[in-house]
Amino acid sequence: MKVSVWKGGAQGRFEQFDVPREPSQTVLDVVTYIQRTLDPTLAYRYACRVGMCGSCAMTVNGVPRWTCRTHVDKVVVKETLQIGPLKNLPLIRDLVTDMREFFDKWSRAKGQFEGARTRQDDFAAVDPRSDERKAADAGIECIGCGVCYSACDVVAWNKDYLGPAALNRAWTLVQDERDAGTLERLRAVAGDAGCHACHTHMSCTERCPKHISPTAAIAGLKRAVAKAALKGTL
Ligand code: SF4
Ligand code: SF4
Ligand code: FES
User: Fold this and answer.
1) Longest alpha-carbon distance in the chain
2) What is the distance between the alpha carbons of residues 190 and 218, in angstroms, rounded to a whole number?
3) pLDDT of residue 201
4) Which ligand 1 atom minimizes the distance to the CA of 163?
5) Which of 123, 109, 137 is nearest to 216 (CA)?
6) pTM of the predicted model, to two decimals?
7) What are phi and psi of 202, to 5 degrees?
8) Best label site of 17, 31, 117, 213, fewest CB within 10 Å?
9) Which of 52, 86, 55, 57 is nearest to 70 (CA)?
10) In sequence order, what are the beta bridge partners of 18?
11) Chain centroid offset of residue 145 CA
12) Contact present, 85 and 8 (Cβ < 8 Å)
């Protein structure tokens, strides 16, 4: 097949390579083949190769995807593939983006657990049947791949917007009954760059490889912020 791969920085261009088709070949296999046999200067990032680390996301034929679990058979069009870096993130080189702003926004959304117990306290017993636990479970498997962030138009328009992954993380913590930082977290996500900036386009939810719905999480945050505002606690 013919594979076009982005080379260089923001002013770079696509370069074309011929890559043999293999059974069960993934897009990451294709990039690895190019780097190992055709162009050793090609920069790209991966770690686990099994869909756990979140580091291998790229844009494949215009769509953001995790490449280690995307089979070529599913995405190839007329024996051609176009592979570029994730959108909405600064480009370092070739297929490698700078993820700092993505993770800085997790931090801005107070995406860290704030415990209230000491090591002398017993384990918290969280009822797996409670609505809060179910809501947290729905978003907890995020691997931080950035696919949703790259798919979100609001991120493209508004560089300050916290984005779907950081807001999804904030929502899982708001639902965590052991967490003591809810009010501060709701304040962090309530501003212009927070949950109210989401236009409910659903691209994040459509693209998330872990079948998480950041759209639902953001809707939950909007409700929680409105409730806190009505109570006068924000
Ligand atoms: S639902 Fe919201 S966060 Fe998700 S892609 Fe649309 S605007 Fe972005
Ligand atoms: S919500 Fe989904 S698409 Fe977004 S970073 Fe997490 S796993 Fe990736
Ligand atoms: S290499 Fe780890 S998720 Fe793809």
Assistant:
1) 63
2) 11
3) 87
4) 3
5) 137
6) 0.96
7) 75, 0
8) 117
9) 57
10) 2
11) 4
12) no
- 62 burial type by CB count under 10 A (0-12 exposed, 13-18 middle, 19+ buried): exposed
Give the pLDDT band (50/70/90) at residue 9.
Answer: very high
Please, which pLDDT band fits residue 126 given cuts at 50, 70 and 90? very high
pLDDT at 106: 97
Ligand 1 atom, smallest distance to 215 CA? 1
Instruction: Quickly list DSSP for 22-72.
Output: -TT-BHHHHHHHIIIII-TT-----S-SSSSS---EEEETTEEEESTT-BH
Residues within a 6 A CB radius of ligand 1 = 151-152, 154, 164, 198-204, 214-215, 218
CA of 210 to the centre of ligand 3 (A): 12
For residue 164, report the distance from its CA to the centre of ligand 1, in Å: 6
Q: CB atoms < 10 A from the CB of 167, how many? A: 29
Q: How far is the CA of 74 from the centre of ligand 1 (A)?
A: 25
pLDDT, tens digit (0-9, with 9 covering 90-100), for 175-212: 999 999 999 999 999 989 999 999 998 999 999 999 99
Pocket test for ligand 1, best of 153, 203, 205, 213 (most atoms within 8 A of CB): 203
Structure tokens at 156: 């493209």
Residue 166 makes CB contacts below 8 A (sequence gap 6+) with: 102, 105, 106, 108, 109, 111
Q: How many CB atoms lie within 10 A of CB 193?
A: 19
How confident is the prediction for the chain on average, in pLDDT? 97
